[in-house]
Design a protein that fits this description.
Blueprint lengths: L2 H6 L6 H8 L3 E5 L4 E3 L7 E7 L1 E8 L2 E9 L3 E2 L2 H6 L6 E4 L3 E7 H10 L1 H27 L2 H11 L3 H4 L2 H8 L3 H10 L3
Antiparallel strand pairs: 1-8, 2-7, 3-6, 3-8, 4-5, 4-7
Helix pairs in contact: 4-5, 8-9
Length: 188
């Protein structure tokens, strides 16, 4: 999906505003296994995924807890670290070689001052993230493991081939053994 089409999912930008935003984007690449942000570091850049898969997670008691995956055309960030410019409580890493367009926090704030439409776009994107987090929380508390697995397969089936299953199991709150059983028996 082209970037303009992705933005239209949230808010339609006029041509001048779209050009203003995109001319401020720069490109950066990371290798598989590279960290974009580590716990304790403040995320200074907001990334728009061009290629690759990324994962936000934290570790406790030798266990990895996966919070989110990102892939094209979505944006990629530790939201609270970027939005409030505070140290991150968790990690953002590349599961595959990845390429991004990005904008710094300072550059984005300047664009907000220049364009109400760009500010509205990012506000609506933030609202969708908030609603998605709430929906995910409800799913984790109310759906069976099979229902969670099926919902994941409906929304992000390509990740089954790109992401180690132990990470998907963690994301879904499913024991890796039960995930393996679901993967081998539930037809999608």
């Amino acid at each position: 999906m082209e970037r303009y089409e992705y933005f239209k999912l949230f808010h339609v930008l006029g041509t001048a505003d779209y050009v203003l935003l995109t001319k401020n984007l720069k490109t950066k690449t990371f290798k598989k296994g590279d960290f974009i942000t580590v716990a304790g570091q403040t995320q200074r850049e907001l990334y728009f995924v061009k290629s690759g898969v990324q994962m936000a997670y934290f570790d406790t008691d030798n266990k990895t807890h996966v919070l989110a995956f990102a892939y094209s055309p979505k944006f990629c960030a530790i939201a609270e670290s970027f939005l409030f410019q505070v140290p991150s409580k968790y990690f953002l890493t590349c599961l595959t070689d990845s390429e991004f367009d990005y904008i710094t926090f300072e550059e984005l704030q300047k664009l907000f001052d220049q364009s109400q439409q760009i500010e509205r776009l990012f506000r609506r994107m933030t609202e969708v993230v908030l609603a998605s987090v709430i929906n995910r929380h409800i799913e984790l508390l109310s759906l069976t493991i099979e229902e969670r697995y099926k919902a994941f397969c409906k929304h992000s089936p390509h990740l089954l081939q790109l992401v180690p299953h132990k990470y998907i199991a963690s994301y879904l709150g499913i024991n890796p053994t039960n995930f393996s059983k679901l993967f081998n028996t539930v037809k999608i």
